[in-house]
Design brief:
The protein is 44% helix and 17% strand. It is of the alpha/beta class. The chain has two domains: 1-55; 66-226 and 301-404, Alpha/Beta hydrolase fold, catalytic domain (Rossmann fold), CATH 3.40.50. It holds the Pfam family PHB_depo_C.
């Protein structure tokens, strides 16, 4: 299938249109500024069209400074470990607080890790923050190898070891998709008696056992064969990229899937944005731009990782049925006996419904109750687990209270 190349060409043409309309919007905007003319009826549609047509690159985290405990603290982003398909970023604070390290495992599900920038900003209040920064495989030469589910598991093990060598064992937070590989990683480290272990494991709205409360996402994954997915959604990276002819699940397909889950909401947001442009409501415009600059920026996934995740997590339920084998060893989750685990689920999560993540407790049969924590976020959807006002005003502090018991 070569639809990706056609789509990429269309995106290039549209991006040129976006650049031209942005220039015209800027021109008329300058006229309005100098002449006090009511030209927003011209600049608004031009700006709107520009954003619809533009290409959205990976947005930076852009976290340079924060107020922590009443002090302005500079934040410096640094790469502390780099593998072929992922970098481990550390947000070093200018003022040492001897805060416990925490590693946030960002989802590898179509968006860049920077989508979580507001979410991880909360962690600066009480932790030394690290995050996985997944790289777009279309920019990775195919000679550098492939990447699958168990490579993800190994990366987590490597990153835990890296942080332990720099500081001490980190708390590990898996947001959505990474919950399954994170559990495998933590269990493998426990079974092998590795020097570097997770201090705790926080599982947030992810698919540990999707049979518990299947959503439309789960049913769709299960209703089609792996060969169907291979034939219908796997593409080759276009020739103009460094990863030319690598087999991938394109980001644009995943982006369309995200939009189609809540089309009315996204259409409404864009109409509200257009009205804000007409009304010169800079606050709404800024909020819209900040969110959609990261939401519309998508990355590919390797075909191997996408298909293996479908098979292991959504179709054959390897974690729940005891079929996980890593490095030749069958993974036995009862080996997790002293790593505290907290599960956070949302009432209206239509991607990973309540029960799917909590199933982790059923797998960790020898984990004492004193090492278990559970939070059910009422009247929240999937993104409400780790973002928004509820996260900033309540959920984060309950997560912090749980991990603090084990520091």
């Amino acid at each position: 299938m070569f639809f990706y190349s056609t789509r990429d060409y269309q995106a290039t043409v549209l991006h040129e249109l976006s650049e031209r309309t942005r220039d015209w919007a800027s021109f008329f905007g300058d006229m309005e500024s100098h002449l006090s003319s009511p030209l927003r009826s011209i600049t608004a549609p031009l700006s709107f069209i520009s954003r619809l047509a533009k290409h959205y690159p990976r947005a930076p985290f852009g976290i340079k400074e924060m107020s922590i405990d009443g002090c302005d603290v500079e934040i410096n982003e640094e790469v502390v470990c780099e593998n072929t398909f992922c970098r481990l970023l550390h947000f070093r604070k200018s003022h040492s607080q001897d805060a416990p390290p925490i590693m946030v495992i960002a989802p590898l599900s179509g968006h860049y890790a920077s989508l979580l920038r507001r979410s991880i900003a909360m962690f600066f209040r009480g932790y030394d923050v690290y995050i996985t920064d997944w790289l777009n495989p279309r920019y990775i030469d195919s000679s550098k190898g492939d990447f699958g589910f168990y490579d993800f598991v190994q990366y987590i093990c490597d990153f835990i070891s890296t942080i332990n060598a720099i500081d001490r064992p980190p708390h590990v937070v898996a947001i959505c998709q990474p919950t399954a590989p994170a559990m495998v990683s933590v269990c493998h480290l426990a079974m092998s008696g590795a020097a570097a272990q997770a201090k705790s494991l926080i599982l947030m709205g992810g698919p540990v056992d999707v049979r518990c409360n299947p959503t439309d996402v789960c049913r769709f994954a299960d209703s089609n064969s792996l060969s169907w997915f291979d034939a219908n959604v796997i593409e080759y990276v276009p020739a103009r990229y460094p990863g030319a002819f690598r087999r991938v699940y394109p980001g644009y397909i995943q982006h369309e899937a995200f939009i189609n889950m809540h089309p009315d909401k996204h259409v409404g947001e864009h109409f509200a944005f257009y009205k804000a442009l007409l009304d010169n409501d800079k606050e709404i415009v800024k909020r819209h731009v900040n969110f959609y600059d990261t939401y519309h920026a998508v990355m590919d996934m390797t075909a191997k990782f996408f298909l293996e995740t479908l098979q292991i997590v959504f179709k054959e339920h390897h974690l729940a049925t005891g079929k996980v084998v890593f490095k030749g060893n069958k993974i036995d989750f009862s080996a997790i006996t002293d790593v505290p685990i907290m599960v956070i689920e949302a009432e209206f999560d239509d991607i990973c419904a309540p029960g799917q993540t909590k199933a982790a407790f059923d797998l960790c049969k020898k984990l004492p109750d004193k090492y278990k924590g559970y939070l059910f976020v009422e009247k929240a959807g999937h993104y409400g687990v780790f973002s928004g006002k509820r996260w900033e005003n309540d959920t984060y502090y309950k997560l912090k209270a749980f991990t603090s018991k084990f520091d």
